[in-house]
Amino acid sequence: MKFLSLSKWFLMVLCISGMLIQYGCAFKDIDKRLFVSAIGIDPAENVENGYKVTVKVALPFGAIKDSAKPSFAYLSREGHSIGEAIRMLETHIDKVLELGHMKTIIVHEKLLRNDMQTFMDYFIRRGDIQLISYVAGARPSAETILKVEPKTEAPASVALINFFGATANDSPYVVTTFLFQLRRDILADGINPVLPLIETNEKGDELIVNHSVVVDGREDPTVLSTIETKYFNSLLKNSTGLTYLVKKGSLELLLNISQSKMTYQFVSREGSEAPRAIDMHIVMKGIIGESNKDLSIAKLDEYNRLASKEVKQKILHFLIKMQEENLDPFGFGLHYRTTRLYTEDLFTAWQKAYPDIEFKVTVEVKLQGTGTIE
Amino acid sequence: MSRFVYFLLISNMIANLIASSPRILFGKSEEGAIVTMIIALFFGVFINWVLITFFKAFPGKSLPHILSLYLSKWIAIPTLFILGIVWYVSGMQTLITYIDILLRFITPEMSVYLIIAMFIPVITFGVIMQSRNILFTLELVFVLSFPVAAYYVVKLYFSEQVSWNHVAIAMTFIDNPPDYTVFSTVTYLFVGAFDIIIFNSLLKKKMTFGIKQALIIFILGAFAIFTTYFIPIGVLGFDQVESILYPWILTSDSIRMKFGVIERVIFIFLLLLLAIAFLNITIHWHVACKLFQSAFGIEQLKIKLREKISLGIVVVVFWSIAIYTTLKVTEYDLFLYSKYYFNSIPIILIGLMVLMLVVNRRAKV
Fold first, then answer.
1. What domains can you pick out in chain B, each with its CATH number?
2. Do A54 and A200 fall into the same domain?
3. Is A347 on the interface with B (CB under 8 A)?
């Protein structure tokens, strides 16, 4: 019995002495740290094949009441690699740069190529950077975009974060791409990642996100127009709050689509495995949001037909444009790989077939009503 | 079957998520992982059936006790010694992996010695606890972490970040011939219940292993294998998934709670894992400790003090080896040695089962 209590004593002393080693804890205090809220990457001007890294650092303030506007500091540095530039940035400030809360990575438009994985590598390899941070393209440069401080930005928040991830802004024109998703799509055969493109107005006090970029191997990445971005979002990501403008003669209808669903199948060529066509079926549900004429609720079927025809044309146009550019933002190739058992030439067969593939699109618009008035 | 057997089984399945097993599976993703996983699933249920059927005949007796009753010392002692090493290495593997993860993801600036120092008192205390208390700890941790774990699993399966296309691509490799390493790795998922070679001394009730129990283990196993293998592929993509060192950490980091208190699910995951890893190390080392004690005949010692001292020696030896290895081993070594370890598991299990058969025959005569 006596020994037992001794052993307990021993354990207690051991535990307490463990605490003694924690003289100041390995962490540094929060006021000794600077939190990076966004990071921007541009091609370097002075270093060959290098990068210019700009970080947007949130400055601490006492209470939200005291400060009307969020305050940021911007630090820039050029280097041969991202990691090197960030290491050098740490010598420009008196505190520790903390990247764990960094949520947005902004990349210059010109750097959005397939070889971007060479510098994105840094962000994935570091354990403390979130894989759910957003990646976006920037025009004219990442630095300009970072330095924009929109008037709508509330204290203790960053506007760049609210745009993405559908927590605040849920617009169908905004594509959201996470860091892990970018890595997955770049490395996967049969899909091209799509990134949002952030622009600013002439005065430089607004952020505008309604274009997107399809990342591929080429020097000049293809930029999707506003309309194309919307189609991409509605077809692939099932985003809500879409509007479509349908014109027929003098009648103009604006459809508010609340649901859209795309399903497709591959049609094989006779006698061979290679696909000949893609049979695509799209169902959209919604109501009429705006019209320049009086509408009749009894004629919904007619409006449906009208809308289906219009939407089909636009979608087909978009699909064919992507096909002509040999881009695959929808991941048809990826889906094709899932429909056959693996063979070594499966994907090359798809690559050969894709430029000549035929799209057979049927669109079914199901309007639920004409809004609150006829 | 006692509920504790299920707990032991499940804790081992979860602890394997962080260890090297997912990486080994991904490495073979184009060389027959799928077929082998299906074969190993049936084998896993089979070994559990053998185990329970064997111990059914000896309610309330641990393996060292049974061996000493029916086998000569010359067979019993080496067997116990080898099993002790297997169990010890199993716990150590979890320990090293977890220290590695702590260093890389939670406290990158902390010294490795400090992290080990934090583990030592907690795990030592766990190891020298009575077997009964360990089982209760196991149950307690399970009850406490179940809601979080259930939430996490639901979150994983219904998260829009999981690309089921990639999962389907992984499945298109179903027609490849099976692979031994994958087989042994998946078999290892099922060895959790083998901890009852010691804990059986507390399970006094007669156990049954019928269709129902087999089905439960089958479903648990299928679910564990599916989650371990396919969910990271869905999140991280099929192509080049084998190049990721900690697939499960990155997977949890890629899942987000849009409106949660914290957005990054990874912190829930790491906390959960800390609890399970602690359990896993404690249980395995406790079993190893008991096995070594019986192998060296410490159990027979009459004087309490000497028994305690010998226990102390075992624990000190455990930690010396563990600390030395943790400091020496690189990530590549860990992966490589884990592979060797897993490869030896089916052989040891089959040997153990043959031994059980022999004992069973002798007991009947």
1. 3-364 (1.20.1740)
2. yes
3. no
**Sequential pLDDT tens for chain A (374 residues):** 455 677 777 777 777 776 665 554 456 777 788 889 899 998 888 888 888 999 998 887 777 677 667 788 899 999 888 888 888 888 888 888 888 888 899 998 888 876 676 777 888 888 778 888 899 999 888 999 988 888 887 776 788 888 888 777 778 888 888 999 888 888 888 888 899 999 998 888 888 998 999 988 777 788 898 888 888 888 877 666 777 787 877 888 888 888 888 888 888 877 677 788 889 998 888 888 888 877 777 778 888 888 888 888 888 988 998 898 888 888 888 888 888 888 888 888 888 888 888 888 898 888 887 777 77
Do the chains contact at B163 and A341, CB–CB below 8 Å?
A: no
Cβ separation of A340 and B172 shorter than 8 Å?
yes
Question: Domain range holding A182?
Answer: 29-224
Same domain, A113 and A203: yes
Q: How many residues does chain B have?
A: 365
Q: Are residues A283 and A234 in the same domain?
A: yes
Strand duo A222-224 + A242-248: pairing: unpaired
- A131·B238 Cβ contact <8 A: no
Is there a single domain that holds both residue A220 and residue A177? Answer: yes
Q: How many domains does chain A have?
A: 2
CA distance A167 to A180: 19
C-alpha distance from A190 to closest chain B C-alpha (Å)? 11
Option in B117, B165, B305 nearest A331 (CB): B165
**A328 at interface of B, judged by CB pairs closer than 8 A:** no
User: Among the three residues A192, A224, A256, which one is the final residue of a domain in this structure?
Assistant: A224
CA separation for the pair B242, B239 (Å, rounded) = 8
Q: Are A79 and A176 part of one and the same domain?
A: yes
Q: How far apart are CA B177 and CA B33, in angstroms?
A: 9
In degrees rounded to 5, what are phi and psi of residue A331?
75, 40
User: Do A94 and A220 fall within a single domain?
Assistant: yes
Give the residue from chain A lying closest to B122, CA to CA. A15
Judged by CB atoms closer than 8 Å, whether chains meet at B161 and A14 is answered as no
- Quote the ipTM score: 0.84
Residues 6+ apart with CB under 8 A from B242: B23, B26, B27, B29
pTM more than 0.95: no
Query: In chain B, whose CA is at the least distance from the CA of A333?
Result: B165
Residue A358 maps to which CATH number? 3.30.300.210
d(CA A311, CA A293): 20
Q: Which of residues 43-82 of A touch B (CB under 8 A)?
A: none
Q: Which of B110, B174, B305 sits opposite A3 (nearest CB)?
A: B305
Select from B104, B173, B174 the Cβ nearest to the Cβ of A127: B104
